[in-house]
Specification:
This protein is mainly α and about 120 residues long. The protein is built from 4 helices and no strands. Keywords: Membrane, Transmembrane, Transmembrane helix.
Length: about 120
């Protein structure tokens, strides 16, 4: 949100938002929303132990690495860091593939697909 507000200040002051800032902001926004979903999905699917640590670590690295490398590489002129985008993107892909596996092989009621554990009221 802070990046979005900064972009608003630039525009309101008659300036122009650099394209690298727009791309980084978009990635950070979408990946932050996906992080919220992952926060619910990991425990709902019963991902525990080392696998949970791997899923979380890989996702967080990718979530911050993708926009971070855009800002560092393009915004601050550190273009030699740009190839590490493949590392951050790969971390996201591996994290999501692990979650796909748990989704496909988990119990049918793991994500709330089973019957309710309470009796409905007699209204």
């Amino acid at each position: 949100m802070a990046v979005g507000l900064h972009q608003f200040v630039l525009l309101a002051g008659g300036g122009v938002v650099p394209p690298w800032m727009i791309g980084g902001h978009a990635h950070l926004g979408v990946l932050s929303i996906l992080a919220i979903v992952m926060g619910f999905a990991v425990p709902a699917l019963g991902v525990t132990g080392t696998v949970r640590t791997a899923v979380t670590g890989l996702f967080v690295a990718g979530q911050w690495g993708i926009p971070g490398i855009v800002w560092l590489g393009e915004g601050f002129g550190l273009t030699f860091l740009m190839p590490t985008g493949f590392l951050w993107g790969g971390a996201l892909i591996v994290s999501m593939l692990i979650m796909l596996y748990y989704s496909a092989t988990g119990a049918g009621d793991a994500a709330g697909g089973g019957s309710a554990s309470f009796a409905p009221g007699d209204d």
